[in-house]
Specification:
With about 200 residues, the chain is mainly β. It has 2 helices and 9 strands. It has one domain: Aromatic compound dioxygenase (Protocatechuate 3,4-Dioxygenase, subunit A), CATH 2.60.130. Strand 6, helix 2 and strand 7 form a beta-alpha-beta unit. It starts with 16 loop residues before the first helix and ends in a 12-residue tail after the last strand. Belongs to the intradiol ring-cleavage dioxygenase family.
Length: about 200
């Protein structure tokens, strides 16, 4: 009798191919991406912000071939996703809440997102942005969250942030920097080491 079992697909790390394939225009390929690092326009409702940062490996070196993906609610605290049917929170047709950015084209291997500050998704929850990291050496992409330094009172009550050991919470909090161009938040991601970013199992 013939053996009809298929062989297991060989494993592979999640990078660095995502950065080139999913953010093609950023890397000079003539292909239309489904999103970019620019989530907001002058028509988007809410407070315009920039998020900048770098990804560091375990040796403290910046990673030049990672891809960062973010998902967030709009200024009303609603996600532009079919699963979010809360009609009491308005959708913004000028905001999709989803962006991608590679780390290999800006000076210093930075990533940068132009977006708006999200609203709280429900009472007792601080504003946050979901952050997903794709890079070489990872067998599966890593999930974390970005909270805002200037939301200290809300952060202190957030049920998810409060599950993180107090001494590690700072790795999830973006630092506010006021610049001549507007409000900017600095959020560095450290993959390993004593000051490693906290990642979540989803």
């Amino acid at each position: 009798m013939a053996d009809n079992k298929l062989k297991e697909t060989p494993s592979q790390t999640v990078g660095p191919y995502f950065a080139y394939g999913l953010t093609p225009r950023q890397y000079g390929y003539p292909l239309p991406p489904i999103t970019s690092g620019k989530l907001a326009s002058d028509k988007t409702q809410g407070d315009y912000i920039e998020i900048v940062g770098q990804v560091y490996d375990g040796a403290g070196n910046t990673v030049d071939d990672a891809m960062i993906e973010i998902w967030q609610a709009n200024s009303s605290g609603r996600f532009a996703h079919p699963a979010d049917q809360r009609e009491e929170r308005a959708l913004d047709p000028e905001f999709k809440g989803f962006g991608r950015m590679g780390t290999g084209t800006l000076p210093g291997n930075h990533f940068q997102f132009e977006t708006i500050k999200p609203g709280s998704i429900e009472e007792g929850h601080a504003p946050f942005i979901n952050v997903i990291v794709f890079m070489r050496g990872l067998l599966i992409h890593s999930y974390t969250r970005l909270y805002f330094e200037d939301e200290a009172a809300a952060n202190a009550q957030d049920p998810i942030l409060n599950q993180v050991p107090e001494g590690r919470r700072h790795t999830l909090v973006a630092k506010r920097v006021d610049s001549p161009y507007g409000v900017r938040y600095r959020f560095d991601i450290r993959m390993q080491g004593d000051n490693a970013t906290v990642f979540f199992d989803y």
